[in-house]
Amino acid sequence: MNIAIDGPSGAGKSTIAKILAKNLGITYLDTGAMYRALGLKAYLCGVSPCDEDAVKQLLTSTVIDVGAGENGTVVFLDGKDVSLDIRKNNISKMASDISALQSVRIYMVALQQKIAASKDSVLDGRDIGTVVLPDAEFKFFLTASAEVRAHRRYLELLSRGENCNEADILRDIISRDYNDSHRKFSPLKKADDAIEIDTTDLDIDGVENKIMNIIKEKK
Ligand code: DC
Q: Which one of 50, 88, 108, 126 would you pick to mutate in the ligand 1 pocket, going by the greatest count of ligand atoms within 8 A of its CB?
């Protein structure tokens, strides 16, 4: 069984995907973490995430591995655990820009499909229901107002001790939403057969109940 969860950043995808994976005893794959790892690599190497030729070249000397950890997807970049480094705020923009490149999408989608084919999984991202797993048994599209998503992200960064400003985060989120949904290749988009859930006024238990009921009903 594969479950696809798509939506903009801060809609609660990864929190709910982790819970579903635990409830159902399946693997969780955070596909955004893979784009973030490549964004981090570009950052470390001083490569522009918009320079397709340079990024293509970078991909030939990059190894991205993922595994399941207690707190979600563990990501290794060239053998080093970068699971925390990729969450830094400056890497979010790098990941969003780099994810717009066609060569990057081809590389990541193939890797994600291979992982999902090998075990029952819940994948979260932007193009899981539309491109990576168009035949997924369950597809959900989570949304929430930009303000609520920015506030959630603000609390998350604060809890990690990062210095941040909520207004800046809101601006970044709006700009990243635009980037992710207007790019040419695999833009953020609800699959026609995905169930949309607006999480603006729902706590995580509310979202979990909704999704688990839908899954139980169909199984
Ligand atoms: O989910 P996230 O915010 O960690 O993802 C980081 C960036 O990666 C996001 O701005 C868009 C991109 N992404 C993507 O293009 N496709 C995916 N399946 C997952 C993430």
A: 126
pTM above 0.70, yes or no: yes
Q: Identify the helix (H) or strand (E) that includes residue 23.
A: helix 13-24
Q: Which atom of ligand 1 is nearest to the CA of 179?
A: 10
The one-character DSSP state at 130 is I
Round to whole Å and give the CA distance between 137 and 154: 33
Dig out the tokens for 69 from the structure: 């950890």
CA–CA separation, 207 vs 209, rounded Å? 5
Residue 189 and residue 7: Cα distance in Å, rounded?
A: 8
Domains of the chain by start residue, with CATH: 2-194 (3.40.50.300)
pLDDT tens for each residue of 7-18: 998 899 999 999
Rounded CA gap, 190 and 126, in Å?
Answer: 8
